[in-house]
From TrEMBL:
This is Alpha/beta hydrolase. Belongs to the AB hydrolase superfamily. The keyword Hydrolase applies. Keywords: Hydrolase. Signal peptide: none annotated. One of its GO terms (molecular function) is hydrolase activity. It comes from the Bacteria. Pfam families: Abhydrolase_1. It comes from Sporosarcina gallistercoris. SUPFAM superfamilies: alpha/beta-Hydrolases (SSF53474).
């Protein structure tokens, strides 16, 4: 295994002719796809990876300067695509990976066929202009401070907010465990990159047909964000799931899988 595949702990499943790449979100790693990846591998070649700093990636490859913006992570995705010689792939990104992957698709559209965004947001901050992102600047500052002061406490605080512990307590435990397993400094820098970014200016440049999967009750991404994306992303389809939380691929994997498969075979 070469350095790029080691760096991002690249895993390949399935023997299908068409490749589908699954990209995890903040505080997670490729294990978050465990409930839908095996089913996808029955008909696709599935490529999984961990961002540098997550899961079983090579922590020594982490550079604060490179990964202070989404473009550093975007570059890694393109390097994985080149290393595996992938073309016309389907890409599924959860949360911030939707925007990271979108930047890759804008730069190299020939590498992508169809695109799925799960719980995406181009900008998490509310603005006086009327844009609703879900957070005030003070909310993000408090979140980052909590991560610095009490990382385990932050994880146990956030996990129930982004999941639905009344419906799926095991999902909440899995997410908290994933949060805690991340290096605290890297997790904080990833959070800053995620929550303070603004990709709205790039949306019009996205040419790949895109499915937006929005949860009806998502504490991280309000429904207005899904509607905004649908209005500003060319060739986009919006599907709203009647589910609470930010991780439908874990809490409602069968329904999530069905939406993805229906879109990919259109």
């Amino acid at each position: 295994m070469n350095s790029i595949q080691q760096r991002n702990h690249v895993t390949v499943m399935g023997q299908g002719e068409q490749t589908i790449m699954l990209a995890h979100g903040f505080g997670c790693d490729q294990s978050m796809w465990q409930y839908i990846a095996p089913a996808l591998a029955e008909q696709y070649r599935v490529v999984l990876f961990d961002y540098v700093g997550a899961g079983n990636s090579d922590l020594s490859a982490y550079q604060t300067e490179k990964y202070s913006t989404a473009h550093g992570y975007k570059q890694d995705i393109l390097e994985i695509i080149d290393e595996l010689d992938l073309r016309e792939i389907h890409f599924v990104g959860h949360s911030v990976s939707s925007m990271i992957g979108m930047l890759a698709a804008i730069e190299r559209p020939e590498c992508f066929n169809k695109f799925v965004m799960i719980g995406p947001s181009p900008c998490y901050l509310n603005e006086p202009t009327g844009y609703i992102g879900g957070f005030e600047q003070s909310d993000i500052s408090d979140l980052l401070t909590m991560m610095e002061m009490n990382f385990a406490g932050w994880a146990s605080y956030l996990a129930p907010i982004v999941t639905d512990p009344t419906e799926n307590p095991e999902v909440t435990k899995d997410v908290e465990k994933s949060f805690v397993s991340t290096d605290p400094q890297i997790a904080r820098e990833f959070a800053e990159m995620t929550f303070l970014s603004d990709h709205r200016g790039s949306l019009a440049s996205m040419s790949i047909p895109t499915l937006i999967i929005q949860c009806s009750d998502d504490s991280i991404v309000p429904i207005e964000v899904g509607e905004y994306l649908h209005a500003h992303l060319p060739s986009s389809t919006l599907r709203i799931m009647e589910v609470k939380g930010h991780y439908p691929h874990i809490s409602q994997p069968q329904e999530t899988l069905k939406l993805i498969q229906e879109f990919l075979v259109k």
